[in-house]
């Protein structure tokens, strides 16, 4: 399942919101929300942005809600070239933050 779907499902659970309530506040059809959040239908970027907006989520806060197991799941889903980029950025960041 796509990490964004996992994230949205976790947010809904944490906020105590049902799919019906999300449909009401987002204006997205409930059956479409169910299909997307069950992994049976792809989510459009427009739908993602609309859901994130009504849930009060910015791009910067998305990673704050993941636990270690979810980070590992994301890592295992990444293609090798993306893993190399992430590791390179982490190494650069670590080096930059250790400078006097």
From TrEMBL:
Pfam families: HTH_31 (PF13560)
Domain HTH cro/C1-type: 8-63
Molecular functions (GO terms): DNA binding
Top-level division of the source organism's lineage: Bacteria
InterPro entries, per the entry: Cro/C1-type_HTH, Lambda_DNA-bd_dom_sf
Record protein name field: HTH cro/C1-type domain-containing protein
């Amino acid at each position: 399942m796509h990490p964004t779907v996992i994230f949205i499902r976790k947010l809904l659970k944490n906020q105590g919101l049902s799919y019906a309530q999300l449909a009401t506040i987002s204006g997205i059809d409930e059956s479409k929300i169910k299909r997307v959040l069950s992994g049976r239908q792809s989510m459009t970027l427009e739908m993602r942005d609309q859901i994130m907006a009504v849930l009060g989520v910015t791009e910067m806060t998305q990673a704050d809600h993941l636990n270690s197991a979810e980070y590992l799941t994301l890592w295992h889903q990444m293609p090798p070239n993306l893993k190399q980029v992430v590791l390179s950025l982490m190494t650069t960041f670590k080096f930059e933050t250790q400078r006097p």
